[in-house]
Design a protein that fits this description.
mainly alpha; single chain
Length: 135
């Protein structure tokens, strides 16, 4: 076998592995975003309850439940430990607590930072994953 044929064979063999690694990285990034959004909707729910906005609290609760499930499934898909998943969520919550500064009047800051992307993830997490896979 010539050196060129060996090189070509190595490239062909490495494509699936590279594609798998690319998919794993995309899933890990989406898992991190899902964790951020679990935190975001948790704060939205808390502030909605504080303001007696039952409808907003109900929607936020549904989003927390759905995104938590997706975050767990994404973590499982890439063999992420429960500790790592929990750690990501904790970091996200700590960052968001700083923006909120203990006052639901600051929920606007969270909305500006996370609201749009979290709505995208909540509405269609597969589309967000596909965005990363196309990069």
């Amino acid at each position: 076998m010539t050196l060129v044929r060996i090189a070509a064979l190595l490239v062909l063999l490495s494509v699936p592995a590279a594609a798998q690694e690319e998919k794993k990285t995309a899933i890990e990034v989406v898992q991190a975003e899902l964790s951020i959004c679990v935190g975001y909707y948790t704060f939205v729910r808390g502030c909605a309850i504080e303001q007696s906005n039952i409808n907003a609290a109900s929607v936020a609760t549904a989003n927390v439940d759905k995104l938590r499930k997706y975050a767990y499934q994404a973590g499982q898909a890439v063999n992420m430990s429960a500790e790592t998943m929990l750690s990501r969520l904790k970091v996200a919550i700590e960052q968001q607590q700083k923006l909120l500064a203990g006052d639901c009047k600051n929920i606007v800051k969270l909305d500006e930072a996370y609201g749009g992307r979290c709505k995208q993830l909540s509405d269609d997490p597969q589309a967000v994953l596909d965005q990363y896979l196309k990069k």
